[in-house]
Amino acid sequence: MENNLQFQPIGYVKSCFKNKNGTPRQPSISSATKGDLSILKTVFNNPEHSLCGISQFSHVWIIFCFHLNESSGLKAKVKPPRLDGTKVGVFATRSPHRPNAVGLTLAKLENVDNDTIFLSGLDIVSGTPVLDIKPYIPEYDTPRLGLSVIDKPKSSDQPLSELAEAETTNINVSDWLVEASKDQINVLFTERAMQNIKKYQVKEDTSCQWKLDHICADDMVQVITDILKADPRSTYRRQKCGDRLYYFTVDSAHITAWFDDTTVPNTVEVLRIVPCLRLNQYTETKQT
Predict the structure, then answer these.
(1) DSSP per residue, 14-72
(2) Contact by Cβ (8 Å): 128, 12
(3) Are the C-beta atoms of 240 and 271 separated by less than 8 Å?
(4) Could you tell me which residue ranges the TsaA-like domain spans (predicted)?
């Protein structure tokens, strides 16, 4: 049996997340996050042919590599952020630190143009190598008991929506996921942050630094809120780091937020939003 398996990426994601910091841990966290994927010509002579028919599906599975993992040795038990330091088996988690650093995400298919698919609801860092794309098929991908909805007798008076719900009621998840999902974080925006967002929403001058490549400016508040409500901080940063400031990027915007864990529920305040290019220029000026 061959031990050394080799895979060739079919393309690389371009998304609104340039760094791991702030990238959602799951695709369902924010539906407004966007990106695209072009099929490489080194894979197919006519890469657009590989996407024929995919536009008939609303969602697709993206199978990718966690290429930004730092080599720290494999561990059979890991500490999911939601468990605040408690360890569970790696295969009972979605941790990126796995024997084979392969990730799976479900994205909404927005459009197909030639050799490129446009996606939303992404939780993938820009530049991530993709191994495969598969269409999402509810009839096969949603666990059900007994007969499927389409096989139910037509004489049944029960609505199809109720049948679908009844068929999926015996799906279980770990208790710690259920408890963690109850935690709520209030997200607030300072007046300064809201004024910063308005600069992105001015569309007269598209050549200025206040522009976005992937997401819509009108969705900025929602995207930032979705990310922060899910608390993107690591367990170490939450428990042992005295600095409550948190920095992350969305598209071309650099966001500064401040977490207050003393309130009930916890609160995070968005302090400032500036273009990444402008921040880099400011940093270079200070260093010189």
Answers:
(1) EES--SSTT--SSGGG-TT-EEEEE--TTT-SSGGGGGTTGGG-SEEEEEEE-TT----
(2) yes
(3) no
(4) 7-145
Q: What is the pTM of this model?
A: 0.81
In this structure, the strands spanning 266-275 and 185-189 are: parallel
Q: Identify the structural domains of the chain with CATH numbers, from first to last.
A: 11-66+101-141 (2.40.30.70), 183-287 (3.30.2310.20)
Q: Which two tokens stand for residue 145?
A: 């008991």
The token pair that represents 180 in the structure block: 């963690």
How far is 125 from 96, CA to CA, in rounded Å? 13
Q: What is the pLDDT of residue 154?
A: 44
Would you say the C-alpha torsion 198, 201, 207, 212 has a positive or negative sign? positive
Length of the chain: 288
